[in-house]
């Protein structure tokens, strides 16, 4: 025997071929025929076994697939073969009742509702009757119908397992096309499979005695107690055998990314916070020291709400007003401010949050004096909204993940170290940092990752919150902040080039992702 181990089923299949070859020099057998052999028993088993035998290391057989189109009668079609086409049923009815004409309305008693219109059309087309003033007037009841002949032919061909569409001439094919539209015939694709010995396969069955010993795949107590184990052949375990692919139920890829990122952050000591989708401009922009005339607030980027168009804002708005207008925290001047007139009415306007930085800043604002003394590490993962046209890289709704560290003595270097660690844990080995600008952080940075075949890609924005952001909240310690787009992350993980793919729920992709 050659240098590979054969599974019992493989031996059985080869044995069938060996007999066919010895008797009639046959090297090719249909899967259907093989399945009927008692050594096999089912088409699935034949196919599975043939797949093993055709694998790279053996190549003893080839699987040959012949695709063909076949014409079959539908359930409706079968009825029509018995009773005639609907127009024939009308004609028969008239013959039986000796009628020369009937009102169209009466068709409802003879035929199914859905068949009335097609029957009328065909009565006219086939010149069986003409229609005048709501009456069907008979012209020729003894007609021959090529469509019915074709239906009969299909029935007979089906009985003889001869349904290939190629058995019909062009005229018949046209008729079949019509009958298919009327729902009496279905065209289906059929795959005819056969297994054929390769040269190597032929050599093999010529030169080997194929011995089939019953095998067991599991040793039981019974085998041991009875001593049967001495005669048992235990099937060796082969992890390389190709098998049917199975797709178990699983979470949506986007949910999986979210869960993975959560796990990484929780592992790094962060705590999750959640916030509502609808925010005031106060929390979405003002507190983050974004001036009220900042272009990002423009209609183009932000979704403003009509109902309710105003929300509540805290007393603290006075402090925010003062930092925006004059750069003052209480009576201490910490910066130039934006030097414009801050409008509390604008602060009250409602928006769909445009970034998760809202969650970070709301958390900081919620701390009591005592809590402010302690270090904090929090993150949030949430949907954010931007009024952008949908294309391969933009959706009006997407996921962001955002986090902060508040602690005495932390600085920019710690932020870089943290982000490198975070991105490493997400599977990106090469990370590089570039300077960037955000209205609420100074200094600010962008982190890029290197992806094989795509180069350096920007993934993350970060920085140290400006004093103008944290000091009005009574926080005098550094706060490191960062935000990352999760859709980008998901696209990289699954090699997508179009963000829309993530939400199409295309089953084939979902199964394999
Ligand atoms: N909020 C920023 C990201 C960011 C978060 C925190 C600090 C710096 C930048 C964005 O949406 O792009």
TrEMBL record:
Keyword Phosphoprotein: no
Catalysed conversion reaction: tRNA(Phe) + L-phenylalanine + ATP = L-phenylalanyl-tRNA(Phe) + AMP + diphosphate + H(+)
Keywords, sorted A to Z: Aminoacyl-tRNA synthetase, ATP-binding, Coiled coil, Cytoplasm, Ligase, Magnesium, Metal-binding, Nucleotide-binding, Protein biosynthesis
Cofactor binding summary note: Binds 2 magnesium ions per tetramer.
GO molecular function annotations of the record: ATP binding; magnesium ion binding; phenylalanine-tRNA ligase activity; tRNA binding
SUPFAM superfamilies found in the cross-reference section: Class II aaRS and biotin synthetases
Ranges in a coiled coil: 151-222
Keyword Glycoprotein part of the UniProt annotation: no
Transmembrane parts of this sequence: none
Aminoacyl-transfer RNA synthetases class-II family profile domain sequence ranges: 255-492
GO cellular component labels: cytoplasm
Binding sites annotated in the UniProt record for Mg(2+): 442
EC number: 6.1.1.20
Compartment list: Cytoplasm
Residue positions binding L-phenylalanine: 357, 440, 465
Cofactor requirements of the protein: Mg(2+)
GO BP annotation list: phenylalanyl-tRNA aminoacylation
HAMAP family noted in UniProt: Phe_tRNA_synth_alpha2
Subunit annotation: Tetramer of two alpha and two beta subunits.
Family according to the record: Belongs to the class-II aminoacyl-tRNA synthetase family. Phe-tRNA synthetase alpha subunit type 2 subfamily.
PANTHER family per the UniProt record, alphabetical: PHENYLALANINE--TRNA LIGASE ALPHA SUBUNIT (PTHR11538:SF40), PHENYLALANYL-TRNA SYNTHETASE (PTHR11538)
Name of the molecule in the record: Phenylalanine--tRNA ligase alpha subunit
């Amino acid at each position: 025997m050659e240098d590979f181990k054969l599974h019992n089923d493989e031996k059985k299949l080869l044995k069938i071929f060996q007999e066919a070859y010895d008797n009639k020099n046959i090297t090719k057998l249909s899967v259907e025929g093989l399945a009927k052999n008692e050594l096999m028993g089912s088409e699935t088993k034949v196919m599975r076994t043939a797949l093993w035998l055709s694998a790279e290391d053996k190549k003893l057989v080839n699987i040959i697939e012949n695709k063909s189109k076949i014409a079959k009668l539908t359930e409706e079609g079968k009825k029509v073969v018995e009773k005639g086409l609907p127009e024939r049923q009308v004609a028969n009815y008239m013959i039986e009742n000796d009628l020369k004409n009937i009102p169209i309305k009466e068709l409802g008693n003879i035929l199914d509702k859905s068949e009335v219109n097609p029957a009328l059309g065909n009565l006219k087309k086939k010149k069986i009757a003409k229609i005048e003033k709501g009456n069907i007037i008979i012209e020729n009841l003894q007609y021959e119908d090529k469509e019915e002949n074709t239906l009969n032919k299909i029935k007979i061909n089906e009985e003889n397992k001869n349904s290939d569409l190629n058995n019909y001439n062009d005229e018949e094919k046209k008729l079949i096309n019509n009958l298919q539209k009327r729902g009496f015939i279905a065209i289906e694709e059929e795959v005819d499979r056969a297994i054929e010995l390769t040269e190597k396969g032929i050599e093999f069955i010529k030169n080997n005695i194929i011995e089939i010993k019953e095998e067991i795949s599991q040793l039981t107590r019974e085998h041991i107690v009875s001593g049967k184990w001495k005669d048992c052949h235990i099937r060796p375990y082969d992890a390389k055998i190709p098998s049917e692919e199975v797709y178990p139920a699983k979470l949506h890829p986007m949910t999986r990314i979210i869960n993975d990122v959560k796990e990484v952050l929780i592992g790094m000591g962060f705590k999750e916070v959640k916030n509502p989708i609808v925010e005031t401009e106060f929390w979405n922009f003002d507190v983050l020291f974004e001036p009220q005339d900042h272009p990002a607030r423009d209609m183009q980027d932000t979704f403003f709400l009509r109902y309710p168009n105003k929300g509540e804002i805290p007393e603290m708005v006075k402090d925010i007003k003062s930092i925006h207008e004059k750069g003052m925290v209480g009576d201490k001047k910490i910066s130039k401010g934006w030097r414009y007139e801050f409008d509390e009415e604008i602060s009250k306007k409602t928006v769909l949050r445009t970034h998760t930085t809202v969650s970070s800043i709301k958390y900081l604002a919620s701390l009591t004096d005592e809590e402010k003394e302690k270090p904090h590490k929090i993150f949030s993962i949430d949907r954010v909204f931007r009024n952008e046209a949908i294309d391969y890289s933009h959706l009006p709704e997407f996921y962001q993940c955002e986090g902060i560290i508040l602690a005495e003595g932390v600085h920019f270097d710690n932020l870089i170290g943290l982000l490198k660690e975070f991105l490493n844990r997400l599977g990106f080995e090469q990370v590089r940092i570039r300077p960037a600008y955000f209205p609420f952080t100074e200094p600010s940075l962008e982190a890029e990752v290197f992806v094989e075949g795509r180069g350096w890609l920007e993934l993350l924005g970060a920085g140290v919150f400006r004093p103008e952001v944290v000091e009005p909240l009574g926080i005098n310690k550094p706060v490191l902040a960062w935000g990352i787009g999760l859709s980008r992350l998901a696209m990289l993980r699954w090699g997508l080039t179009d963000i829309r793919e993530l939400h199409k729920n295309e089953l084939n992709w979902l199964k394999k992702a």
